[in-house]
Amino acid sequence: MLDVVLKEMKRTKGICGKAAVLLRRLVDVRIFCDGNHRTAYAITDIFLRMNGERIRVDDELKVIRFIKDIKSYNVIEIEAWLRDGKVPKRPRCRSS
Fold first, then answer.
1. Would you give the DSSP letter of residue 72?
2. Mean pLDDT across the stretch 35-64?
3. CA atoms within 13 A on the CB side of 16
4. Termini Cα distance of the chain
5. Phi first, then psi: what are they for 74, rounded to 5°?
6. Among 36, 59, 73, 82, fewest CB within 10 Å belongs to which?
């Protein structure tokens, strides 16, 4: 499982792109019975710091909200969140 994540990271450009793949895929592979989101976030944070970057969101509640909803975002949106600290805008559904 992890070897697939690492291969995808190697093919991805940029530290934030690699971190986005890491974050999303670690949540997807569900290594543990519980705590996968927290673990994926912690590992991604360490990966970024080891590469001279950091997660740009300081508000813990915003981080928790984003990580809980991580599966609703694609890797490009996650990369933007990691790089800019802003949740990607989503089109609103219009009621008929």
1. G
2. 94
3. 14
4. 44
5. -90, 170
6. 59
**pTM of the predicted model, to two decimals?**
0.85
> In 3-state terms, the chain is what percent helix, strand and coil (to 5)?
65, 0, 35
3-state secondary structure 5-43: HHHHHHHCCCHHHHHHHHHHHHHHHCCCCCCHHHHHHHH
Q: How confident is the model over 6-23, as pLDDT tens digits? A: 898 999 999 999 999 999
CB 67 within 8 A of CB 41: yes
Region 20-34 average pLDDT: 91
Domain boundaries, the chain: 2-84
> What six digits make up the tokens of 29?
């592979």
Scan for tokens 């705590």, then name that residue: 35
Residue carrying structure tokens 């697939």: 4
Question: Exposed, middle or buried, 19 (CB in 10 Å: 0-12/13-18/19+)?
Answer: buried
